[in-house]
Amino acid sequence: MSDLINYTSCGLLWLGLLAKAPDLARRWRDPFLLTLSAVLALSSLCFLLGAPGTVGFVNDAGGVPNLAAPLTYGTVTAYGAASLALVMRWRGGPGTGRAIRRWTLGYTAVLAGIAALFMLGDAAVERRTDFDTYYATTPYIAEMIVLYLGAHLTAVVVTACRSLSWARQLRGSLRAGLVTMGAGNLVGCGYSVAKLSAVGARWCGRDWSVLGTTFPAACAGLGAAITVVGIVIPLFAPFLALRARCWRAYARLGPLERTLTGLLTRESLRAPRPLWPSATRWLTWRQSSIYNGLHHLGRHLDEGLFRQTYADRTRAGADPRQAEAAAWAAVIAAAVIAAAVRAPNEERADAVVPLAGRPDLPVLLRISDALAEGTGDRALAVC
Fold first, then answer.
1. How far apart are CA 83 and CA 89, in angstroms?
2. In whole angstroms, what is the distance from residue 227 CA to residue 215 CA?
3. Most-buried pick from 4, 240, 272, 352 (CB within 10 A)?
4. pTM (2 decimals)?
């Protein structure tokens, strides 16, 4: 992949890591949070170290030709192991910690083997893009290549199998995240499979360098991106779902607020709208405006009309919640009319028992729906 794609992907992943930094600072001993942060950090390093520009910089800065190769391969291997540990930590259960420690020790040995084989081998000619196929027959370097590719392939296959197997037992955002993560690891398999195929072809005297450079890079980038999306889905799905519910509630309260608009404007009962388009703030603002209007209409909210409308709707076959909403809608519509035609200090001629209490948000939503359907107007006309 080009430097631009690599560095952009790295930057986006670091933004995700920075977003989790406050949680990490507060709960720095949380094993799951530590593993998640390790996955994001290692994934970003894979993109950073895999960029041709970074490869040249590392080789020049270290003074060792191809020094970037073992660093990149070690990071790719560690990323695969961290993804596997994340799935295991995610699922939990007895023996999880022991199993993760065994995998960690095994992949630590792989990383040590990569470093040792690179030092034993001779890779004097710098190869920024086709290192694997160029050195596929070089003693020790070839073994290093096979070691890291085998370790990476093992990690992504096991992670994909565990993710997809566990996803069958779940529902909701966690299942979507696991399926996405499993798909990302399956795509990531193409990285190791393609490179192993190119190396095998080199052993047979054939040149499949394209298969060892372009295709694996695409699989690695796409697989890492899909995997990270799978990790993010369960983390942000509850947040997004809450915001979506708030926006839906805000929109549903529109008919009720519009019914009270004249009163709210005339009596200056509506607070300034929040400047930042936050779902929770705007919902609270609209709900507060409605409560201000209902409080102002308090002496016009006729309990007798409420009871009559409720009884009529119940006899018509409405369930209690629908009947309550229709009764509130009729009472509010009548109160708005009464408040508009009477002077502020004028008392009603008929005896009115004010309606006690105020509806909560679910009831407000049903009242607004009833007003949108015209149920309140119909009930008021009947009364």
1. 10
2. 18
3. 352
4. 0.70
